[in-house]
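Team,

Forwarding the record for the chain on the shared tracking sheet. I've put the sequence and predicted structure together so nobody has to dig through attachments.
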Amino acid sequence: MSAIRLLVLGAVRMHRRAHGYQVRGDLEYWGAHEWSNAKPGSIYHALKQMAKQGLLHAHEIAPSTVGGPPRIEYEITAKGTEEYFRLLREALTTYDQKGDMKTAAVGFVVDLPRAEAVALLKERTRRIEEWRGSVLEHYVPEEGPEQLGHIGEIMNMWVHTADSEAEWTQGLIERIEGGAYTFADEGDPFVGVLAEGQENPYATGERHPEDDR
């Protein structure tokens, strides 16, 4: 799975319509350039590719500020909405060693109904336990990592990571079940994107040729 697809679709969906520089600004505001490969080139490429795939609709709205091709605003399509929720549900339940999909999914979890979010996170816990069990077929934590030489430290790390992940997931489930946060159809959602013209305190300041598109 690509975190870029989920992040870009989610950002466009939040705005209803957004130009590429807005999407880039949102992702930098979320710090996605630090925990994923959400670099400017990747973001603009994803927008164009998903427009070609019918996940986004590209609206030509005005001439570029530098006199080039028309500026483009993107709007998520019905197909794109379906793909967004597919990626979100998959990211919430899948356990692996990479954190970008998990981080993106947590950022969008309130787009789901509360009960569904809990159910998906419980499935995540089950998969973590299943994955941990597969490690224990080859490694016994009680005997320590030394039993496998220094390579045992890798499996030791895997087990500790899985345990930490399971504990965090269970805590999140309990907070959601306890009424934390506003989920789909429960009221006004938390606004996690920059308003038009709002300064981004986390902007990288790196210029890209597509910024004026």
